[in-house]
Specification:
By secondary structure, the protein is an alpha+beta fold. The chain has a domain at 46-79. The chain is built from two helices and 33 strands. Strands 18, 19, 20, 21 and 22 form a five-stranded antiparallel sheet that branches. It has a four-stranded antiparallel sheet with strand order 1-33-32-31, with no helix packed on it. A four-stranded antiparallel sheet has the order 2-3-4-5, with no helix packed on it. A hairpin with a 5-residue loop joins β31 and β32 (417-421). The longest helix is centred in the N-terminal third of the chain and has 46 residues, at 33-78. The radius of gyration is 35 Å and the shape is elongated.
C-alpha cells in the first residue's frame, strides 16, 4: 500500500511540474536560454506596437494642429471685419488743462504711451487715456520728433526746445536763432537745426537741455540750404538733406556726419550722396529707420541708404515712382507712400517697403483719406470721421465711420484692439 501511495504522490508531482514547465522545451532545455529569448521578443514586439501607436497619434495631432494654424492664419490675414464695439471711451477736457481744442496739433506714439501736443503744451497719456504728466509752453508751430523713449518738441521759426521721456520733461533749452528742424536719438540727445540768412547750424543738446560742444555750420552760399535732418537711434550719426544751385539748376545732396568715427575731421562729414546717386531728385524728408537704414523721400520716390559701414553710406536700389506722391509715413520697420494713380478705377495707390527697400504692399484704393500711418504691422488710412485698416498683405481688414473727429489711430495693447484719437477724447475699439 505504501508503494502505491508513493507512486501516486510521484504522479501528482509530475503533473504539477507539467503545469509549471513547458512540455516541449527548446534546444537549451527546460528553463534555458530559448525561453528568455522568446520572452524578450514578445516584450520588443509589444514596445514597437506602443511606439507605432503613439507616433500615429502624434502625427494626427500635428496634422490637425497644422490645419488649425492654417485656418487661423487665413482668417487673421484675409478676414474683413464688419463692425466694432467700444471697449472704453475717455474725455480729455479735464485732463489737459490749458490745452484748448483750437490749439490742438496731433498725437505721436511714444514711450509705451501717447504724446499729445498742442500750441499750449503737451501731455503724456497711457493706453487707457489717463494723463501721466502735463507740460505747458507757448509755441506758434510745434514740431515733434520721437525716437524710442525720448521726444523733442521744438517751435519752428521760434526758439523753444523741450526734451522729454515717459517720466516727464527732462530738459529745456532756447535757441539763439530761429529753429528750422529738430530730431532726437533714442538716448535723448537732440539735434536742432537753426539758421539765418547766411548760414545754418546744427546744435546738439543733452536730455537735460544743456548744450554739447558739438556743432555743424553750413554756409548757404557754399553748402546750400538745409531741408531736413535725422539722428540715428544711438545719436552717433546724423543725416542732412541740402538744396543748392549749380549752374542755375536746383540740386540736392545728402550729407552724413558721424560724431564717433568722424572725430578726425573738423566738419564730422563721413560721406555724401550726390545728385547723380539720387537721379537728380529733390529730397524733402530724410529719416534714420534704425542704425543701419536711412530712407530719403523725394519727388521721384524713395531712396534707401545703408549706413552699416558708418564711414561709407551706400545707396541701395531706389523705389522710383512715376506717379505723383501725395503722402509719406515711416516706422522703424517700414516706409509707406501713397501716390495718385494714372490708370484703373481707383484714384490712389498704397506702397509699403521694408527698411531694406523690398516692396511689401502694392495696393490701389478709392478711400478719400487725408492722412495715414504705419503702426507695427498695420496700416491706417483716415480722414475726419472714417478710417480703413490694412495689414501687410494689403488686405482691407476694416472700413468704418465714427461719430467724432479723428486725429489719429494706433494699435491697442490687446491684439485686435485699436485706439481712435480725437482732439479731446480717446476711444478704444475692438473689431468684430
Amino acid at each position: 500500500m505504501s508503494n502505491i501511495s508513493s507512486m501516486s504522490r510521484e504522479s501528482k508531482k509530475r503533473q504539477l511540474r507539467r503545469q509549471i514547465v513547458p512540455s516541449s522545451p527548446g534546444p537549451a532545455g527546460p528553463g534555458g536560454r530559448r525561453d528568455e529569448e522568446d520572452s524578450h521578443e514578445v516584450v520588443q514586439k509589444a514596445h514597437r506596437k506602443v511606439v507605432q501607436r503613439r507616433l500615429k497619434i502624434l502625427l494626427v495631432f500635428l496634422i490637425m494642429a497644422a490645419i488649425g494654424t492654417a485656418v487661423v492664419y487665413q482668417f487673421s490675414q484675409y478676414h474683413q471685419y464688419e463692425g466694432y464695439q467700444v471697449s472704453w471711451e475717455k474725455s480729455l477736457t479735464s485732463q489737459t488743462e490749458g490745452q484748448t481744442d483750437s490749439s490742438f496739433c496731433g498725437y505721436e506714439a511714444f514711450g509705451g504711451g501717447i504724446l499729445r501736443y498742442t500750441r499750449d503744451g503737451m501731455s503724456f497719456l497711457d493706453y487707457r487715456g489717463n494723463t501721466i504728466w502735463n507740460q505747458s509752453y507757448e509755441m506758434k508751430s510745434p514740431i515733434v520728433s520721437v525716437n524710442g523713449n525720448y521726444a523733442v518738441v521744438a517751435d519752428r521759426q521760434g526758439t523753444g526746445i523741450y526734451i522729454c521721456n515717459p517720466d516727464g520733461c527732462q530738459g529745456q533749452a532756447a535757441s539763439l536763432l530761429p529753429i528750422m528742424g529738430a530730431t532726437v536719438s533714442a538716448g535723448g540727445v537732440a539735434a536742432v537745426m537753426e539758421g539765418d540768412s547766411s548760414a545754418s547750424y546744427v546744435f546738439m543738446y543733452r536730455n537735460d537741455g544743456s548744450q554739447l560742444q558739438i556743432s555743424i555750420k553750413s554756409l548757404l552760399e557754399n553748402d546750400g540750404y538745409p531741408i531736413d535732418i535725422s539722428l540715428s537711434p544711438s545719436g552717433n550719426q546724423l543725416a542732412a538733406s541740402f538744396l543748392y544751385l549749380e549752374q542755375g539748376l536746383l540740386k540736392c545732396k545728402i550729407v552724413f556726419y558721424n560724431f564717433g568715427v568722424g572725430q578726425s575731421r573738423a566738419d564730422r562729414v563721413v560721406g555724401i550722396i550726390f545728385p547723380e546717386d539720387l537721379s537728380n531728385a529733390l529730397v524733402a524728408r530724410i529719416r534714420f529707420l534704425d542704425e543701419d537704414h536711412v530712407a530719403a523721400f523725394s519727388d521721384q520716390g524713395v531712396f534707401f541708404i545703408s549706413t552699416r559701414v558708418e564711414t561709407e553710406p551706400t545707396p541701395g536700389e531706389p523705389a522710383l515712382l512715376e506717379e505723383e506722391i501725395r503722402s509719406i509715413c515711416y516706422s522703424p520697420e517700414y516706409v509707406g507712400v501713397v501716390t495718385n494713380t494714372t490708370e484703373g478705377e481707383d484714384p490712389y495707390r498704397l506702397l509699403v517697403y521694408r527698411s531694406s527697400g523690398r516692396t511689401e504692399v502694392d495696393q490701389t484704393f478709392d478711400f478719400p483719406y487725408t492722412d495715414f500711418r504705419i503702426d507695427s504691422d498695420t496700416i491706417f488710412l483716415y480722414n475726419d470721421d472714417s478710417c480703413q485698416i490694412y495689414n501687410m498683405k494689403g488686405t482691407l481688414k476694416f472700413s468704418g465711420t465714427f461719430d467724432f473727429t479723428i486725429s489719429g489711430i494706433l494699435k491697442g495693447r490687446i491684439p485686435g484692439n485699436f485706439l481712435v484719437l480725437g482732439p479731446q477724447n480717446l476711444r478704444e475699439i475692438r473689431l468684430n
